[in-house]
Amino acid sequence: MKPSPPPGRHLALLCSLLSCLLLTGCPDEGVVCSEGLSRCGDTCADLTSESANCGACGNACGEGQLCAEGACRCLTGTTACDGACVDTRSSPQHCGACGTTCDSSEVCEQGTCQLNCTAGLLRCGNACVDGDSSNLNCGACGNVCGDARTCRGGVCTYDIVATCFNTGQVVGIQSGVDLKGPGTLVASSPQSAARMSDVLLVLDSTRKLIQARLDDYGVLPPRHDTGRAPNQVLVEGPFIYILNSTDNTLQVLRSTEPLPPGKRHPEGISLQNVASVSFGANTNPFGMARVGNELWVTLYGNLVGDPSAGGRVARVSLASPSEPRVTSTIDLPTGAALRPFPDNTTLSTPAGITQHRGKVYVALNNLNPATYAPGGPGLLARIEPATGAVSLVGLGDDCLNPNAVASVGEHLVVSCGGKSTYDAEFKLVSVERTGLVMLDAQDTVVASEPIACSPGIGSCPIPAAGRFAVVGPRIYTGDTNGGRVFVHEIVGNTLVERRGLKDTSEPAIAACPASGFSLVSDVVALP
């Protein structure tokens, strides 16, 4: 019987092939757009959510409007008054309510007509606004945050960004209302993203760190080389930390200029390499988290080569941020402790990592190195930083192959990639026990929310939960097969699906549309 392909290798091969196809076109055909984008003249547009081309090329939304699912609607925080979208908190023609007009000598502030604006507010005509948060006057009068963006700190930006591995796009999402912005082609096969000042850093599998404007994801000139198989990027002040899985390194970059709040970088940020930490051959660093004055890095191990180099967590001192060094490694449980299924052997294969309530938690894929499928139940390793002592936490019967973990208030949330089954042509047939698990302050599972297509839902690609981002009580989980983002909300000790595949929820966010397989490689909340 032909064994199931290793999921990581299968995804990487398929994604690389798709990326090559998407970037190939005949020169005499003009602009060739990646999947999910349509050709509008000499540009590519996302007709589902691009205000300048909403539903059709050239169909522009009006002032104060955005494009959602191919139709124009009022921006979040505005109200339709006499056919226009206005902010009744500051509109002198509609102050507090539609049709309530201030005298010509008055201004409108917080829905009330008065003589002058409160000190510190921005006066735009007869409107008093907070330039740090006004979606219609962000940072300056008349600067409108369209396309589902939010004004924060005087910069129009999205709350969340999803990276689309196959199509090379990044997609912004506005939290709460869960609207998506237009897909924007930024890279070849983006793996992850992070914010640095007013720049979006995009980690591309072609061994490049790409920079884009935070407000519209337009690509900027600077590009910086990374190692092979860059997997995760973390920004800490002027420093950028990149895990290169195939090169087995932690790469450290630093901005060559100060980055004070409010400074703009219209041409990007100049960076330089300052350090590189090697974890050793076949360690395959996978995830990292800041813990005090250290970076804790999971060493996954090379399942195709020498897996014995993995199954550990490395502690990297950042006492001197430009000169990081490995101070120790912590061995994770092996053998019977991992509770292998009958006729299985298993390795811990540590993936995601986070700090929570003074301890460090690591998601263990718990894979069989011969089949690359789960060889045991979903587990977390719980580590006491002071002593390095390790204990295991079970995740229940609904979780296999846990891969991402995050602290959400008193709770821990874990995404479970599930067990994938392929046919003889390596086509995905099913994914079992994929979804989210939530633990309480005593590390007891209190909620388990499978992600699955409801019977009779119609066309529904098989879902598989991947990395996720947290904004308030909401969890935005990337789909590693169907290109969607699922939205769950923590309500007490329960997980409620807000955007997903159930008949009782709104449809999942179609972040990375593509024919067939579509990988949301990461979902990141932007500070």
Counting DSSP E segments of at least 2 residues, the number of strands comes to 44
Termini separation = 49 Å
Count helical runs. 1
| Uncertain parts | 1-28
Structural shape: globular
Average pLDDT, all residues: 91
Tell me the Rg in angstroms.
24 Å
The major sheet is characterized as:
5 strands, antiparallel
Task: Tell me the fraction of residues in β-strands, as a range.
Answer: 35-45%
Helicity, in percent?
under 10%
Structural class: mainly beta
Produce the secondary structure layout.
Blueprint: H1 7-22, E1 38-40, E2 43-45, E3 65-68, E4 71-74, E5 79-81, E6 84-86, E7 107-109, E8 112-114, E9 122-124, E10 127-129, E11 150-152, E12 155-157, E13 160-164, E14 169-174, E15 179-180, E16 184-185, E17 190-196, E18 199-204, E19 208-213, E20 219-225, E21 230-236, E22 239-244, E23 249-255, E24 271-278, E25 285-291, E26 294-299, E27 312-317, E28 325-331, E29 350-356, E30 359-364, E31 379-383, E32 390-394, E33 402-408, E34 411-416, E35 419-422, E36 428-432, E37 435-439, E38 445-450, E39 465-471, E40 474-479, E41 485-491, E42 494-500, E43 506-507, E44 520-525
Parallel strand pairs: 42-43
Antiparallel strand pairs: 1-2, 3-4, 5-6, 7-8, 9-10, 11-12, 13-14, 13-44, 14-15, 14-16, 17-18, 18-19, 19-20, 21-22, 22-23, 23-24, 25-26, 26-27, 27-28, 29-30, 30-31, 31-32, 33-34, 34-37, 35-36, 37-38, 39-40, 40-41, 41-42
Structure overview:
A hairpin with a 2-residue loop joins strand 29 (350-356) and strand 30. By secondary structure, this protein is mainly beta. The termini are far apart. It has 1 helix and 44 strands. Strands 13, 14, 15, 16 and 44 form a 5-stranded antiparallel beta sheet that branches. Strands 39-40-41-42-43 form a 5-stranded mixed beta sheet, with no helix packed on it. Strands 17-18-19-20 form a 4-stranded antiparallel beta sheet, with no helix packed on it. Helix content is 3%, strand content 43%.
